[in-house]
């Protein structure tokens, strides 16, 4: 069976809100890296615990009344509760383990017993929009590096990175959008093929010399190019150093957060690894750890020889440190190095999905943004580029980094367009969990906070409760499974703009309160820009002596 999200205006449920959530679940699978195993992205990030759970979720959404709430525990539907029509239709908690037990060993044990699953950030809660989900984040990182180190221009610059998977597959396109020559190493040729097929990667080869030739050609001509190299990053990075090839920018976005199911060690074929993972998981982990350490040492050497390097949110430094690379944290994390000023004002990765399946709906919303956010250069620059470069994957969708008030302005306008019949169907609004008030991850999102509150995970829990109290349609609390165990806590929300007054109310409350909390979180940590945002936007902050 091949699952695709339903398009058009026929409902299979008791209302558009339920239909929207059902289509988003289907859309996660339509865009999945491995649909047969329900794996959406991020090594083993799943949309549902197992196929029985998937079918039960679908049937539950079909019978769910407006005043009921479907409860899901790590991808398995547990029951339907009578609530009220302003309550979320779906609430879920995914991959959570209690403090002392939140480690990889315990997680894998429970995972093998099918008692939990890894939900990633947007896999478990049906908010995945394909590789474009994190593309603007990566693009903005490249832009920030360009401004800081290369006089604002990446033409003729060489970016080296790794990972052509679900999320990491956005890197080649982000590099091209930033005008650079980008080489992306992935050990799995099928991943490179998928990125070429979906328009995220231009060329691929297994020959390093050919790859470097294409990169050099583009550098000389100052044209953008993306090249996929089929190889292991732990082998290729040191080899480039040996040859004296020093890229301008170096990173990695392989699934290094998970040493068992994510990162592929050197000198093992994928088929051999599949057997090893089953028969001797400890050895598979140890081999992956050693390869991660080798790759990270190479990244540090690139840094010493002048490359701008950064960790792109896959926990690779933490893994490398555990495998002996004491100075792994000399590599800066992208949030602190480049994007924190945006998060301080709760500007983050906001997303919307055209549930009708009509690309035209996204284009109309793009036009609205270009006209009504004309003063916001981040938005207008991005929307123009995205319209030109970002291909449609699954239900047409868009991501744009917007802040407090801006998200609500857009969502309410869109809700009105739905009501007026300007769009061909309702639109779902959501965001990445990597957002100002929504994530605690002391090695990614909250590293080196001003007040040292990096590991306090009250914030995402409050975030989810605020979303539930603010009438969001779906609310999720996730935590770190797999290699992530114990590293992170996050929250997600989805709200459906179906054109009704009730939807307008839900959108306004949910989105305003979500970003208010984001600003308050950073204000609490002492960031001046957040305090300024509190003042400017009239957010009600309580000061204590
Ligand atoms: P994925 O599992 O879909 O893809 C990972 C890719 O890495 C695969 O294609 C795999 O073949 C490749 N790979 C693994 N080991 C390799 C090696 N040694 N050499 C070369 N290639 C190798 O995962 P994904 O969805 O692309 O996510 C990748 C990572 O990025 C995860 O750790 C995820 O948590 C993280 N992530 C970060 C952000 C962010 O905001 N910065 C967002 C999303 C995901």
Automatic annotation (TrEMBL):
Residues 3-126 form the Urocanase N-terminal domain. Residues 130-338 form the Urocanase Rossmann-like domain. It comes from the Bacteria. Residues 341-535 form the Urocanase C-terminal domain. It is an enzyme of class 4 (lyase). NAD(+) binds at residues 186, 232-233, 253-257, 263-264, 482. Binds 1 NAD(+) per subunit. Its cofactor is NAD(+). The keyword Ligase does not apply. InterPro entries: Urocanase (IPR055351), Urocanase-like (IPR023637), Urocanase_C (IPR035401), Urocanase_central_sf (IPR038364), Urocanase_N (IPR035400), Urocanase_Rossmann-like (IPR035085), Urocanase_sf (IPR036190). It catalyses: 4-imidazolone-5-propanoate = trans-urocanate + H2O. One of its GO terms (molecular function) is urocanate hydratase activity. Keywords: Cytoplasm, Histidine metabolism, Lyase, NAD. It is found in: Cytoplasm. Pathway: Amino-acid degradation; L-histidine degradation into L-glutamate; N-formimidoyl-L-glutamate from L-histidine: step 2/3. Belongs to the urocanase family. Catalyzes the conversion of urocanate to 4-imidazolone-5-propionate. PANTHER family: UROCANATE HYDRATASE. This is Urocanate hydratase.
């Amino acid at each position: 069976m091949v699952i695709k999200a339903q398009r058009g205006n026929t409902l299979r449920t008791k209302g558009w809100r339920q239909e929207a959530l059902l289509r988003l679940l289907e859309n996660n699978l339509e865009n999945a890296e491995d649909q047969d195993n329900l794996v959406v992205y991020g090594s083993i990030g799943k949309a549902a615990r197992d196929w029985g759970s998937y079918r039960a979720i679908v049937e539950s959404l079909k019978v769910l009344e407006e005043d009921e709430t479907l409860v899901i525990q790590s991808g398995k539907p547990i029951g339907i509760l009578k609530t009220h029509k302003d309550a979320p239709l779906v609430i879920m908690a995914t991959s959570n383990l209690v403090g002392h037990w939140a480690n990889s060993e315990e997680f894998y044990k429970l995972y093998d017993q099918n008692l939990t699953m890894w939900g990633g950030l947007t896999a478990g809660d049906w908010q995945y929009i394909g590789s474009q989900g994190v593309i603007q984040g990566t693009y903005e990182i490249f832009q920030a590096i360009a401004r800081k180190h290369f006089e604002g221009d990446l033409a003729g610059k060489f970016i080296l990175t790794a990972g052509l998977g679900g999320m990491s597959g956005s890197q080649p396109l982000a590099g091209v959008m930033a005008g650079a020559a980008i080489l992306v190493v992935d050990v799995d040729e099928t991943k490179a093929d998928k990125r070429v097929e979906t328009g995220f990667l231009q060329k691929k080869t297994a020959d390093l010399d050919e790859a470097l030739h294409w990169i050099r050609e583009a550098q000389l001509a100052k044209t953008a190019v993306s090249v996929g190299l089929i190889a292991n990053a732990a082998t290729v990075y040191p080899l480039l150093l040996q040859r004296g090839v020093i890229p301008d920018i170096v990173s990695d976005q392989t699934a290094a957060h998970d040493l068992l199911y994510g990162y592929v060690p050197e000198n093992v074929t994928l088929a051999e690894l599949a057997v090893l993972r089953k028969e001797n998981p400890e050895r598979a982990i140890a081999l992956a750890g050693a390869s991660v350490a080798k790759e990270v040492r190479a990244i540090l050497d690139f840094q010493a020889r002048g490359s701008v390097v950064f960790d792109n949110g896959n926990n690779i430094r933490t893994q490398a440190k555990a495998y002996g690379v004491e100075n792994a944290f000399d590599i800066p994390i992208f949030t602190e190095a480049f994007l924190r000023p945006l998060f301080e004002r709760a500007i983050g990765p906001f997303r919307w999905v055209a549930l009708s399946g009509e690309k035209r709906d996204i284009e109309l919303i793009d036009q609205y943004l270009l006209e009504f956010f004309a003063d916001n250069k981040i938005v207008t620059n991005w929307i123009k580029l995205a319209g030109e470069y970002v291909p449609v994957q699954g239900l047409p969708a868009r991501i744009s980094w917007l802040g407090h008030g801006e998200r609500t302005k857009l969502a309410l306008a869109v809700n009105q367009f739905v009501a007026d019949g300007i769009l061909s169907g309702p639109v779902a609004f959501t965001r990445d969990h990597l957002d100002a008030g929504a994530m605690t991850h002391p090695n990614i999102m909250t590293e080196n906070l001003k007040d040292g509150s990096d590991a306090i995970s009250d914030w995402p829990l409050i975030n989810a409760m605020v979303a539930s109290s603010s009438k969001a349609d779906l609310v999720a609390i996730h935590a770190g499974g797999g290699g992530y165990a114990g590293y992170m806590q996050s929250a997600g929300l989805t709200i459906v703009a179906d054109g009704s007054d009730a939807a307008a109310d839900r959108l306004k409350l949910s989105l305003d309160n979500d970003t208010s909390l984001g600003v308050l979180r950073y204000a609490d940590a002492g960031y001046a820009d957040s305090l300024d945002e509190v003042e400017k936007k009239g957010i009600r902050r309580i000061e204590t002596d």
